[in-house]
Design a protein that fits this description.
The chain contains 15 helices and 14 strands. It has 409 residues and is of the alpha/beta class. It has two domains: 205 residues, P-loop containing nucleotide triphosphate hydrolases (Rossmann fold, 3-Layer(aba) Sandwich); 156 residues, P-loop containing nucleotide triphosphate hydrolases (Rossmann fold, 3-Layer(aba) Sandwich), CATH 3.40.50.300. The structure holds adenosine monophosphate (AMP). The site of adenosine monophosphate (AMP) has 12 residues, from α3. It is an enzyme of class 3 (hydrolase).
Length: 409
């Protein structure tokens, strides 16, 4: 398929040429016509699938024929969980909309509110926001929602995980009843379905790549190791495997900071991104990593969500995540677009439950590799043998009840 057949204007098509996109990704093929037709949508798609353009392109197209927004108003509201993701969506809007005259801005917490209030003063056609800051701006009369025609909830599952449900509900209550709703989520949990029920009007459901499967181009391994030897093992791997760059995931902010300290004591150049870092610090760390100035980027799941780093060769799970779906998100950061990637996990005995949960989700046992000098004293228990879908026994058919005299089927 080509972009021309999706009904997008020349202004948008030219911007896509500038970006070097040849054809729409599967999620874009599915979402763009449905959104342009005015439907609500419930889309299951992870970061890396091209989902952002999947909603930004049709929004740009639809708003191009509408009158501009009035002061302190917006026509399209995009809610997203993290500052990084908000900033990236806004960058995409600027890139795809560069030949249009639409105004857009992005607002998130952790930075001064005044410049954001100034930007909203004359109105913007598209507003990207994290929920908390958006409510602050509403309370200060910097934004009114009366003219919102399109609402996007991006990474809805993550917004719920981060406890934004109350903020989201407060925002929803302030929006006009008649509007188009677009919900994007990496998973369709019961909570998401519940949220969707109260929000979406006869949504079209779209989904790309089977849920919760890991990219086949990602080679996955795990190293059993004692907890207190993990940092040493990581240094060893960085050197012996000659990792030029790696994204390392830690479960906690404290753990991420500690790891950066330990790596720097070992002369390995690293930086951390997590929720306690200021926006400026996070942006700088990400930029330096992209430029190759930082060798190891240590991130928590929430901070890493949505960061766009192309073709990362190596992802490391320094700790296993508590939520098994996060494992899939984490390793989805490597092996993109057909390139090979590697994901390794350093697993200590106390993480066996998380490992069981992950293996049950990805439906195979991750290859275990023992490294001399790091064989754990506290042995990692065996994985549960994975029962493949094919070998699972079919449930028996219930027996038919015998007929009573005089009865017929
Ligand atoms: P997303 O899933 O929206 O975070 O997008 C992942 C990456 O894919 C981003 O770097 C986009 O710039 C890129 N991308 C999005 N759509 C396309 C496309 N149709 N062709 C090539 N790259 C794309």
């Amino acid at each position: 398929m080509i972009f021309e057949s999706l009904g997008l204007s020349p202004a948008i098509l030219n911007a896509l040429v500038d970006k070097g996109y040849n054809s729409p990704s599967p999620i874009q093929e599915q979402t763009i016509p449905v959104i342009l037709a005015g439907n609500d949508i419930m889309a299951c798609a992870q970061t890396g699938t091209g989902k952002t353009a999947g909603f930004v392109l049709p929004i740009l197209q639809m708003l191009s024929t509408r009158p501009f927004a009035n002061s302190n108003r917006t026509l399209a509201l995009i809610l997203t969980p993290t500052r990084e993701l908000a900033a990236q969506i806004h960058e995409s809007i600027l890139a795809y909309g560069k030949y249009q005259r639409l105004r857009s801005t992005v607002v998130f917490g952790g930075v001064k509110i005044n410049p954001q209030m100034m930007k909203l003063r004359s109105g913007v056609e598209i507003l990207v926001a994290t929920p908390g800051r958006l409510l602050d701006l509403y309370q200060q009369n910097a934004i009114r929602f009366n003219d919102v025609e399109i609402l996007v909830l991006d990474e809805a599952d993550r917004m719920l995980d981060m406890g934004f449900i109350h903020d989201i509900k407060r925002i929803l209550a302030l929006l006009p009843k008649k509007r188009q709703n677009l919900l994007f989520s990496a998973t369709f949990s019961n909570d998401i379905r519940q949220l969707a029920k109260g929000l979406l009007n006869q949504p079209v459901e779209v989904s790309v790549s089977p849920q919760n499967t890991t990219a086949t181009t990602v080679k996955q391994k795990l190293y059993p190791v004692d907890k207190n030897s993990k940092a040493l093992l990581l240094s060893h791997l960085i050197r012996s495997e000659k990792w030029f760059q790696a994204l390392v995931f830690c479960r906690t902010k404290h753990g991420a900071n500690k790891l950066v300290k330990l790596l720097s004591q070992d002369n390995i150049n690293s930086a951390a991104i997590h929720g306690n870092k200021s926006q400026a610090q996070r942006t700088k760390a990400l930029e330096n990593f992209k430029l190759g100035k930082v060798q190891i980027l240590v991130a928590t799941d929430i901070a890493a969500r949505g960061i766009d780093i192309d073709q990362l060769p190596q992802v490391v799970n320094f700790d296993l995540p508590n939520v098994p779906e996060d494992y899939v998100h984490r390793i989805g950061r490597t092996g993109r677009a057909g390139s090979n990637g590697h994901a390794v996990s350093l697993v200590s005995a106390d993480e066996i439950k998380q490992l069981h949960d992950i293996e049950r989700l990805v439906k195979f046992n991750i290859e275990r590799v023992n490294i001399e000098g790091f064989i754990p004293q506290n042995k990692l228990p065996e994985s549960k043998p994975f029962q493949s879908q094919q070998t699972k026994r079919r449930p028996k058919k219930p027996k038919r009840k015998p007929l009573l005299e005089g009865q017929s089927r």
